[in-house]
Amino acid sequence: MKSLKEIRFFGWMVGIVWLLFPLHGVSQEMGDHQYTTEAIQAGLRVYSRECALCHGPRGDLVSGINLRLGQFRNAQSDDDIRTVVLDGAAEGQMPAFNFNAEELNGVIAYIRAGFDPEGVAIRIGDPIRGQALFEGKGECVNCHRVNGIGPRTAPDLSEIGAIRSPASLQRNLLDPGAAILPINRPVRIVTRNEETIIGRRLNEDTYTVQLIDSQERLRSLKKSDLVNYEISMQPSKTPTTLNSDEVADVVGYLLTLRGLR
Amino acid sequence: MNKSKIKLLYICFIAGLFVSGQVGAQVPYDRIVNATEEPENWLTYNGDYMSQRYSRLDQITPDNVTNLELKWILQNQVFGAWQSNPIIVDGVMYVTERPNSVMAVDASTGRVFWKFRHTPSENARVCCGANNRGVAVLDDRVFMGTLDARLIALDRINGQPLWNAEVADVNLAYSVTMAPLVVKDKIIVGVGGGEYGIRGYVAAFDAETGEQAWKTYTIPGPGEPGHDSWEGDDWEHGGASVWITGSFDPELNLTYWGVGNPGPDWNAGQRPGDNLFSDSVIALDADTGELEWYFQFTPNDGYDYDSVQVPVLADMVWRGEPKKVMMWANRNGYFYVLDRVTGLFLEGKPFVTVNWSSGLDENGRPIPTPQPEGMPTYPGNQGGTNWYPPSYSPRTGLFYFSAWENYATIYRAEESEYVPGQAFLGGGFSVLAPSPDAPTIGIGRTNPINNWTDEVGYASLKAMDPQTGEAVWSYNQYDVSDSGMLTTATDLLFTGGREGYFHAIDARSGDLIWNVNLGGQIVMAPVTYMVDGIQYVSVISGNGLSTFALRD
Question: Does residue A110 have a pLDDT over 90?
Answer without folding.
Answer: no
